[in-house]
Design goal:
The complex is a heterotrimer of chains A (about 325), B (about 525) and C (about 325).
Chain A lengths: L3 H10 L4 H19 L6 H26 L7 H15 L4 H25 L4 H20 L4 E2 L8 H4 L1 E2 L3 E2 H19 L1 H11 L1 H6 L4 H27 L1 E2 L7 H11 L11 H23 L7 H30 L1
Antiparallel strand pairs in A: 1-4, 2-3
Helix pairs in contact in A: 2-13, 3-8, 3-9, 3-11, 3-12, 3-13, 4-5, 4-6, 4-11, 5-6, 5-11, 8-9, 9-11, 12-13, 13-14
Chain B lengths: L17 E10 L2 E11 L4 E5 L6 H8 L7 E6 L2 E2 L5 H6 L2 E4 L11 H6 L13 H14 L15 H14 L4 E5 L7 H16 L3 E5 L3 H7 L2 E6 L2 E7 L5 H9 L3 H7 L15 E10 L6 E6 L3 E5 L6 H8 L5 E8 L9 H6 L2 E4 L3 H5 L6 H5 L4 H4 E2 L2 E2 L1 H14 L16 H13 L5 E5 L7 H16 L3 E5 L3 H7 L2 E6 L2 E7 L5 H16 L1
Parallel strand pairs in B: 3-8, 3-9, 6-7, 7-8, 13-19, 13-20, 15-18, 18-19
Antiparallel strand pairs in B: 1-2, 1-4, 4-5, 9-10, 11-12, 11-14, 16-17, 20-21
Chain C lengths: L20 H6 L1 H16 L6 H26 L7 H16 L2 H5 L1 H28 L5 H20 L4 E2 L3 H8 L1 E2 L2 E2 H19 L1 H11 L1 H6 L4 H27 L1 E2 L8 H11 L11 H20 L4 H23 L1
Antiparallel strand pairs in C: 1-4, 2-3
Chain lengths: ~325, ~525, ~325
Amino acid sequence: MLDTTAFDLRRYIQGNTHSLGVWITLVALILFGLLRYENFGGAYNISSFLNYNAMFIVIAVGMCFVIMTGGIDLSVGSVAAFTSVVAAYLSPYGLQVALPGAVAAGIAIGGLNAFFVVVMRIPPFIATLATMLGAKGGALVISGAQTISIDWGSNFTKLGMEKAFGVLPWTIVITAIVCVGLWVLLEKTSLGRTVLAIGGGEDASVMMGLNVTRAKVLVYVISGGCAGMAGLFLASGFGAGQPLEGVGWELSAIASVVVGGTLLTGGMGSISATVAGALLLGLVFNILNFENGRGVISLSAYWQMVIRGAFLFVVIVFQSRVARSAKKGTI
Amino acid sequence: MPLRHHIMKGDEGMQHLIEMSGIKKSFAGVVALQNANLHIAPGEVHAIIGQNGAGKSTLIKILTGVYRRDAGEVTINGTPSTVSAPREAQDAGIATIYQELSLVPLRSVTENVMMGYEPRTRFGMIDWKAAHKRTREILDRFGINIDVKAQLGSFSTAIQQLVAIARAVSLNAQLVIMDEATSSLDDQEIEILFSVVRELKKEGVAVLYISHFLDELYQICDRVTIMRDGQTVGQHVIAETTKLGLISEMLGRDPEEIEAAGMTGLGGGEKATPGAPLFEAEHISTARGLKDVSLTVRKGEIVGLGGLLGSGRTETARALFGLDGLKSGHINSHGGAGQIGTPAEAIAAGVGFLTEDRKREGIVPHMTVRENMTLALLPKLKKMGRVDRKRETDLVERFITSLGIKTSGMEQPIRELSGGNQQKVLLARWLALEPEVLILDEPTRGVDVGAKFEIQSIIREYVDRGLGVLLISSEFEELVEGADRIVVLRDGASITELQNPGVTEESLIAAIAHHHAEAAA
Amino acid sequence: MTMDNNVVQNTPKSTGPKFDWSLVARNGGAIALLVILLFNVLVTPNFLHPQTLFVNISQVATIAIVAVGMTLVIATGGIDLSVGAIMALSGALAPLIFTSPFAEANPELGLALSIIVPIVVALACGVFNGALVSLLNVQPIVATLIFFISGRGIALVLTNGNLQTFTNPAFSYLGTGKILGFPFQGYLVLIIAVCVWWVMAYTVFGRQLLAVGGNERAAELSGVPVKRVKIGAYVICAGLSGLAGLIVVAINSASDAARIGNLMELDAIAAAVVGGTLLQGGKAPIFGAILGAVIIQLVKYTLLANGVADEVALIAKAGIIVLAVYVQQARKE
């Protein structure tokens, strides 16, 4: 039975195969690393790699939620910079204050995004662009454009250094909890399904009587909260609140989501593939560092930007090829 | 035709499920509804008909809480309605299946049926197992057996419509509203839909049915409400009406007048001399599902493309216009240079294509009537890189007059025009190119009866002057009266050709059906 | 689904004794400009001094030039995040060329090459962006993300991250030259704006570009070469970005690949939006974009001149963007 509406949709449906690519590439890259570099599989490398990339993973997962509704959140990098300063200021009161404080600050900015998008009906791209500038300004104002050192005497330092149950750093454990929690929210709750439905067709979702407003507010709040969490990690990783950090993070987060096979138009998406996408982008650096370490080549840090862009290019071309051949195959 | 179980007489002495009376609604000062009424009895199939702009969809959107009424009464089961959002309508037992599907094709069938009402486990999580099971049960009631975990978009439009209905019923709807539900279904699918409607009726669920196809109403509806200019002008038991009577009430014109004029404006051409062939397709096939189509369009004739939805009519048009690459076969155009691989090359070869979907594939809403009309002509209006404004305005003015386009001026944005007038502008877009061959895909769909007649007359006029037309129409009337020859398609292949005069609606249907029967045998 | 589409919509809004807000909405940009100017005349010291004007013109020029290009891209329904990176690339290339031994030996040719080569490279980036968007159907945000990330990287690799300072009066004329007392780049902006406006208003390409943004499928079916038109928009935008990169370098007589055009994509998008460009495409108000750039520049200047910190200026910019789009949105409804 052929009909024209189904034609356009099949293409999206084939999008499912997108996620396959990221897993294959990730596994291939890990195998490559294991075979080529001695210390690649060592506990130290794994732990420090994950520790450093934790903030990018949380941001990417939050971004994934927004993108699934067909929106976008450009403010995450600035929000992380802002909340890293908040976390640094709160660090004397210990982690039990700094963590909720930083996340709450992120959620507040996420709420502002939601207000712009849902109530004022400003396109997400513009709304979050504005909060991006606003949060950046805010971070600079409250920090006086200085890095704010954390209180080394408080238990705040445990976050990045002490290992939970003696196995992995707390950062990684918290990241895992966040990812699993959001996965449950997406897969197992009505609200999560509404998020996907909105991306698949906002008008249709309204007509089905779903609470679209609530779900849209939720995604921006989640993204803000995740960025807040990333800010906390940032402060703990660098030992200071970093008002100038976070530039371009939104775009690497988008890149992670895209590499993970999620379409920017929304309606489909996977938390696990997004995490894989973030790991993949991080791994490119990691391997580059190892390669530099071998002394055969020596690439400056600037090359990493070029390679990252080239990598994104390859993935995009690959994805559009997959989409095209899948389209040909079924019709 | 099945027997109707219980036919409602009149209005008196029964509790209505829905009672809307004296509804008024205006948008920014423009009156859309004035004194509209609608009474629906429990368990009946009720039709609303009227021209575009008569206020049908506004009335329904007031019922479902999309719009707020300015004045008037709405009661549901005798109690005043407080519905002010689609969700509340759903909770009040009113479910709507819109023309543009109100489902999410990217998500699974189960999600689409259960969305917002998913069964939960003890921990408050969605119980997917139970959800799939319940969805399967609900669909079973309508005799649909599909993989509920698959994406809804991977099924045909008909199945998607039925899933929408299944959702409605699972929410204990007392009234299911179907807005142009059959417009994209083929005959078999329509039959499935109708049996579901009858099933609903048996279960005591009322159906409000909106359709442009009057024939359908006689098959399944009990009563009909007729609207004109924002008012309810009649309500009848459908068995007591005639098609002509309904049309005359819709138009507010005399039945005899309509009969004398003929039902379409395509007829009445001099069909004496078929001219030289302009355009020939020989055994073409494409990746989009065309297998083997051959046809010829000659100067000054209308060639109809007959067949069911999915038989390859639009696909043929797309191939001829260079939108889909040919896998085999070839197209000879006698009008112009060489190969047709893109729309631009087709246009250069003297072929035009008026698409079916006016909104998505036709108009550029921000642009003016002038800019829309000359969009395809731009390369020919080029004078040293710039657009020759003088020639452009002269030409646009000429077409506005000759096609009778109702607009406040050529600088009016096209989105502000009515559907029929938008269609005329698009027709002018192609006529201005002075093409040899014009492909018309459902040229009169979704325009009101008056504009329809005018558009048909314009087409006839140009054909008489030598234009070759390839006409795709779901209205057999239009094909039978208009076409000089009808090429019948089935499953992506041209199977026979009928020659006018001599074709009747019955013989056309027979040709299509016969070959279907043959295929089945 | 805001309105039943059967209803004729071209009726005037109810005009009572009430204040007509739509008038404000339609001329929002101009009114905002007037308010800022008035405020400055009254409050900012030395605002009416010619020097103030020159400073502002020379600074607004780069935003305005890029905003014109961005307007074209947005008019096709796309977006170009790579403008800042392309500025950095062309800005890094120019000094590399005219400080090379070859250019030292042939000053005229070297100067010409140092302007032509960076712009050609920028145009090539535009072809790349456009090709990804139109040939591979990559979403514009993603497609231009590639150069956003790697373009500046290439610039940094080329210069090894070093600040290149130079003295080359001929080249610096791009950024510091004056004609009749006004900065050279001010004239450049006007010439570019008039040319692009003319193209949009009177040429086939301009009309086709707006049609592509307004309804891509309809445009394609009407024989508009959609792919070529889209690539054209990205190429023009990239070329203008390259030119803007040269101007920045010329103003400073120094090239720092890490800083040239940083966050320019945001300024340019903001200017286009403040100027009335619809993000969904189909409209390209060129002079609106210039107006938007002027407003953004003036707000920045006003705050700085009155001792407000740079950081707060960012927040103000955010406010302007939200307000502009909100007004645009309200007008639509």
